[in-house]
């Protein structure tokens, strides 16, 4: 504002000396037209970029909401789903350096538009396996699928089964094997997510710099804040879309829904996961259309033409300096650049203890948060017996708004109390400490294992044997020809779930589909009475205390999400204030690269591997081999999932304490900001007032990796 006021003063002083003629009126009218076109162009770009941020956030959060659906549809373990989830970061890293450097020299809006097309192509590719791998087959006894043929669940003699039915069933299995054995369709999901990462790459660096180059200087932070706000809204709609699609059967439109014998509460249920990807792909295509009609350059605002603050565009893209830059880069060799700039900058950066300690704290904390967020829907489903639809609805409508409010609160606290570097470090540390302390209370808010005969309890009502596979068989079902690989649970009237009607010793059934009732089940009922009882389709519900525990979990989860998010903005400002001004871009690049490589890629994988160790009953693929997990040990899952999150969070807190200790050691006793020290690379600040002003600008534009999924 001070620069613009000087310009206006100079303008009026010139008018008092130079006589006004028609040319001045022309220049004034042209200037006003230029200003209007500038404002109109940047606002159109702002609207288009906001829509793109919404589209990419929606598709990214929708992927998180379909983790369990993809796992069941392709019969793969959680560790492999983690690899699929991490492929987005791999695709992003493949071209981020090329896009960040060369993209600024080319037509930035069109590159963003091309990125949207690639992102939509990847989203469509994820959904394609649904149309090529045939209909979804779940494990069900033949008599339930075809009510016209009456079969006994307990096949004492295979001759009891009509040959036509057996041959038909076996032919279907063989046909399925021939179709599925030749390909692993989940690879297309991985490649599609990889393409999504590639397409998303130019959106943030090129879009934000374009706004910063052509927006009025005092409006730039507001515009960027608007974009980031829309990015928070995207995941809300992503999870709500996931909730809607999870209610619909996977083959909706292709099969008669009346013939479907499982419900959304069944562990084998797969929703219409592919439908959301088609919707997200269409949204990505529409989001990219406006960028093909936007200009490469916009008129510079009058207040920034003579400004000393040079933008990225003014530094690298001005046409007048092309020849000078070209001759300069021809003279400088790559090896000399590395020796004279890159290596000294890298040494200076890694010689800054505050930066290194904060980088380590962030890497470990993001490992904790990314792993927790990726498998949070799975944890809620398995721990509290909730459906995928309800889980996604709760996360989208409750958790994500809490994250957004936490981010806003962190920036507001920084502004209201004029917090400096040392105060930002304290706020970030306090946020992490209390957040993980709240997370500790979730250990007491779990549900006990469901009573599953042969897995969590024996047929005698006691604890199972060590080898749970052998304990599936008992005296009560010894006369039945049962398979231990099947998973077709029924609920006995004794409140115990049985893996299948055959293993429950049921010898008769009545009804069809979801309404089937089994009779003469020799394993159902107390072992002492040895009386035969009945059972119904589907597993038994969890204990009466489980719904209450789920409500407690939701309350603590929302408070934890808010508390952890409050420290995001102060931590990011701490990062910016603790490096030399000319190393900011380089330092942020290293920070983002480290987060993606050391947290975004590995965290979903090893969290998935750890979760797989808690599986009690694995499904079996149609052609042999281990499929997706059907039943988890609730207690073990709780300790592994929350324990791994808490251990990583605790380690990150120790690094944050070290950051605060170094800052205190180097801070001035008169002020809670660090004195500038160029040689040592410590935090340099001018004054508390300058610190506050810069923080105020960053409140609305703060961004860090995976911010929209920090739940």
From TrEMBL:
Organism annotation: Sylvietta virens (Green crombec)
What GO CC annotations are associated with the protein?
A: basolateral plasma membrane
Instruction: Give the stretches traversing the membrane.
Output: 40-59, 80-104, 110-132, 220-250, 270-294, 355-373, 393-413, 425-445, 549-576, 588-611, 640-663
Kazal-like domain: which residues? 470-525
The UniProt entry lists membrane topology as:
Multi-pass membrane protein
Q: Identify the taxonomic lineage of the organism of origin.
A: Eukaryota, Metazoa, Chordata, Craniata, Vertebrata
**Gene this chain is encoded by:** Slco1c1_1
Question: What family does this chain come from, according to its entry?
Answer: Belongs to the organo anion transporter (TC 2.A.60) family.
Region annotated Disordered sits at 671-690
Under what name is this protein listed? Solute carrier organic anion transporter family member
